[in-house]
Amino acid sequence: MTDLTALTLEAALAGLKAKNFSSVEITKAHIDACMEGADLNAFITTDFENALVAAKASDAKLAKGEGGALEGAPLGIKDLFCTEGVKTTAGSKILGAFKPQYECTVTANMKQDGMVMLGKLNLDEFAMGSSNETSAFGSVVNPWKPEGKNDEELVPGGSSGGSASAVAANMCLGATATDTGGSIRQPASFTGTVGIKPTYGRCSRWGIVAFASSLDQAGPITRTVKDSAIMLQSMAGYDPKDSTSINKELPDFSVACDRSIKGLRIGIPKEYTIDGMPGEIDDLWQQGIEWLKDAGAEIVPVSLPHTKYALPAYYIVAPAECSSNLARYDGMRYGVRVDGEDLNDTYEMTRAAGFGKEVRRRIMIGTYVLSAGYYDAYYLQAQKVRSRIAEDFTNAWETCDALLTPTCPSAAFPIGRPVNDPVQMYLNDIFTVTANLAGLPGISVPAALDKDGLPLGLQIIGRALDEETVFAAGAALEKAAGFTAKPKKWWV
Amino acid sequence: MFTAKRVAAKKDWLSGRDHDWEIILGLEVHAQVASNAKLFSGAATEFGAEPNTQVSLVDAAMPGMLPVVNAFCIEQAVRTGLGLNAQINKFSRFDRKNYFYPDLPQGYQISQFEFPIVGEGEIEITPESGEPCIVGIERLHLEQDAGKSIHDLSPDETYVDLNRSGVCLMEIVSKPDMRSPEEASAYVEKLRGIVRALGTCDGDMEKGNLRADVNVSVRKPGGDLGTRCEIKNVNSMRFIRQAINYEARRQIDILEAGGEIHQETRLFDNKKGETRSMRSKEDAHDYRYFPDPDLLPIKITDKYIADIKADMPELPDARKARFVEEYGIPDYDAGILTADKAKGDFYERLVAKDTGGRDAKIAANWIMGDLFGALNNASIDLEDSPVNSDALGELLDLIANKTISGKIAKDVFEKMFEGGGSASEIVERDGLKQVTDTGAIEKMVQDVIDANADQAAKVADNPRLIGFFVGQVMKASGGKANPQAVNEILRKKLGL
Lengths: 492, 496
Fold this sequence. Notes:
The structure holds 2 protein chains of 2 kinds. Chain A is of the alpha/beta class. Chain A has a domain at 4-264 and 447-455: Amidase signature (AS) enzymes (Alpha-Beta Complex). In chain A, 37% of the residues lie in helices and 13% in strands. Chain A has helices at 9-17, 23-36, 48-63, 105-112, 161-168, 185-191, 225-235, 253-257, 279-294, 310-325, 343-354, 357-370, 376-396, 422-426, 433-438, 467-481, and strands at 43-46, 74-78, 116-121, 174-179, 194-197, 217-222, 265-269, 298-302, 402-406, 442-449, 455-462. By secondary structure, chain B is an alpha+beta fold. Chain B contains 15 helices and 15 strands. In chain B, the strands form 4 sheets. Chain B has an 8-stranded mixed beta sheet with strand order 5-6-9-1-10-11-12-13. In chain B, strands 4-3-14 form a 3-stranded antiparallel beta sheet, with no helix packed on it. In chain B, helix 2 packs antiparallel against helix 3 (237-256), helix 12 crosses helix 15 and helix 14 crosses helix 15. The longest helix of chain B is centred in the middle third of the chain and has 20 residues, at 237-256. The N and C termini of chain B lie far apart (76 Å).
C-alpha cells in the first residue's frame, strides 16, 4: 500500500471518495507519523482519540456517498484557533488549561466539511515571532537540515511553525495557520510548503485568539497550491460575528489554480531588494520572473516607494493592538493567576508569570506608542504610512495584476541563533508585512533549494479579493519550479 | 475651549467672606439605552437578574471573541441626538479606552472618543424658581458599561457581576452652562423627560439607568473660570443638588483660606452628604485611546437620519405648547404635565375627547394636586399609581354631573387611592351621593332653623351668620346636601 501520509490533500480526498482507503486508515497513518515525529515538537496538544471518532463518522458518510469538501482528511490546527473542549494555549502559559466552550468559525467550517482534527499545533507565543522560539511549549524543529550538518536543528519559521513543520514532515495533509506579518508565508518558505494569507476579511477572526486585529488573517499551509485552494475554500466565508468579515461570495479557488496566466501582468517591485540579501535569493527571484514569462505572463517593473516604511509601521501598529488585545489575560476569569498583595500586584505577578519575554516586549512597545504624547508621533504616523503603502499597491495595480517577490530574505536559520537585536529577527517579515498592512492576499510557493539544500519560497501578492489570480500565478510557479524535494526523515 | 458668559442670577450666588461666588456646572449624564440586547453582544440587559446570568462570551472577553455593534443602539443614539436638537455625525467611530479593572473583562472599554455619533446641540430648561435658560450639549457618545464589583460580600474578596458588562450607555456631555444646583437638577429632569418621551432610556435613576457626573467649579461672579472637580455617579435629583451645594462650599472654603483647588475626581457620600477625593489628576489613567480595530466606523446616511426624524414622537417642549393651546391650561401647569411622558399621557387620557370632554383645568388641578400629592407621600411612581386615568376620570365625572361635591370627592379619592374600589362603588357603598332633592333639603333647612330660632332672628342684622346655618345643614346631611341648593333655600327662608 502506498504511504498515505505522502499524498496531497487533493489526492487523499479523491482516494477517500473512491474508497481506495478509509478515513480511519489515513488518520491512523497520520497518527503514527505524528508519534514518530514527536521530536519535532510540532504539536502542543494531540487529540488522536477524537480524531479516530471523527474518522469513523466520516467513513460512515463516505460509505453513503455523502460528505463535505474535507471529508475524512486528517488535518492540524494551529493552537491559536479556539476549539471546543480541546485545550487552546496560543503558545502561552497564561491560558493555563483553558478549554474553550466554543468553536471558532474557521474550524467550525472545516468540521462542517468533514475534517478530522489531529490536534493543536505549536506556534510562537500569541503568534509573536518568526522562528517559533517564543512558544512557551518549546521550539518547533524544522524537518529540513542543512546538507552535511546533521547536528544542526533549524527553526521552521514562525509564528505558524508547528503548522509548517507538521505539513512538511507529512504529519498532516494540511494545517491551518494565521498571518499577521508573514506568519503563514515565512514558515512555508522555510519548510518547502505552500502557504496563503487571503485578503483581510476572507476568513472570520471569530474565535481565533487575537494578536493584532487589523492585520490577523487565517489561511492554510499545505504541500501544493491546489491543496491550499481546497482548504481555503472551506476555511473562508462571510461571518456576521466578525464585523471585519467580507460579505462576498467565494470564487472557486481550485478552478483558479488551473487558470492560464497568459497575458497576466506581473509586477516586479524594485524596492524589494535589500542590503545583505543572499545572492541566491535574488537569483531565485530572477528565475521566477523567467518561469512566469515562459508561462505567458508579461513582466512589468513597478515601484512601491513606501516599502521601506512598512516594517517600522508594522512594528508600531501590531504591538499597539496587541497591548490592548492581550489586556484580557488578567487572571480574573480564566487561565493562570498568581495572587499578589493587592490587585495591581496580582495583575503584575500574573502577567509576568504568564507571558514570555517577546510578548512582554511587544506589550510594552504597544503601550508606549499609544501613550499620551506619543500617540501622534507613533501610532497615528504609522497609520498614515499604512495608507501610503495601500496607495502604492493601488497605483501598482494600474500597470500589473499581481506582484512577484521573494518570500523571505533568507532560508531557515539554526535554533538558538543568538539574537542580540530583536530588529534582526523582525527583518524576516520585510517582504511579507506589506500585504498585511494593505490587507492583500499573498501566497508563498516553494521554488528551489539554496546552496545548503534548504527550501526557498517565492511570493505572489494580488489585489484585494483576487485570490484567484494569486492561485493561478502560484500554480504556474509551482509547475515551473517542479519542486519535489523532501526533507530526509531523520526524526523517525 | 469652554466659555462661560452667562452670569448667574444674584439669588444663586453664594455669599463669601470678601465677595460673593458663582457656581459653574457642567454635567456628564450616563443614560442606559433602552434596548433588549447589549451594545456589542446579544446578551439580555434586564435589571435585577441573578449575578452573571446575562453574560455572553463577548461580555466575558473570552479569547477570540469579537464585538458586533447592535444597530438598534445606534438608532437610539441618533434619535436622542435629534431630541437634543443636536448635530448628528454621519461618520463616527468606536475607540478603545484601556485600563485594568476586574469588572472590565476586556481590559478596555469600547467608547467613542474622537468621533462621537452626536455633536453639539442645546435644550431649554426651567429651574424650579428661576428663569428658563439654554444649556448647550457638547456631545453624545455611545459606550459600553463595565460590570459591577461587589466589595461587601466578603471581608477579603471582591465579587464581580458581569450582567452590566457591555450594556449600552449614552454619555451626554453638557457645556458648563448651569449656574445653580436647581438648574443642574432641572437639566437632568429635562433630559430625562426627553429620553423617556423618545423611548431611548427609561430614565430610572434608582436602578442607575440614568446617572450624572457633575463638574463643579466656583468663580467670582462673571470672573475667570476656576479649577473644577468632578463628582462621579450621582444618582438622584436631590443628591445632585446636595452634592453641588457641598462641593461649592468646600471649594469656597479652600479658596478663602488662601488655598487652591486641585483638579480631581470625587465621590459623593449620600449618607454623610459630602464629597470626598477619589483620585487626583496626577493619578488619572492614561487611557491610550485608539480606534477599535475589531469594528468598522459607523457611517450613516441623510436618509437614515430623515427616517428616524420622521418617526419621532412629540417632545416635551412641543407637547407643552400644544397643551397650552389645545387645553387652555396655564404655561406652568403644561410645563409640569409634560416634564415627563407618563404625566402627559396620564393627563391626555383623562381629558381625551372620547371621554366627553372633561374640564381640562379641573383635570390638571386634580393630577397636580391630589394625585401627585398622594403619590409623593406614598413614594409611588405614576406608572404604578393605584388610581389610573380612567378611575380618576370617573371621579371627575361624578363631580361634573353633581353626583358628589368637590369636597366629598377628595374623600372618595383618598379611599380610591387606598384601594377602596372605584369612585362610584365608594359613593354607592358609603352613601355619599349628593342630595339635590330640594324637598329633602328644604326639610333639613327648616329643621335647622327651628332648632336655632334665636340665631335665625339675628341673621337680618348679621348676614354672615348664614355660614353657621350652611354648616349645620351640611352636617345634618352628612355632607351630602348640594351646597348650592342649601345656600339658596336658606337665603329664601331666612329672608336674605
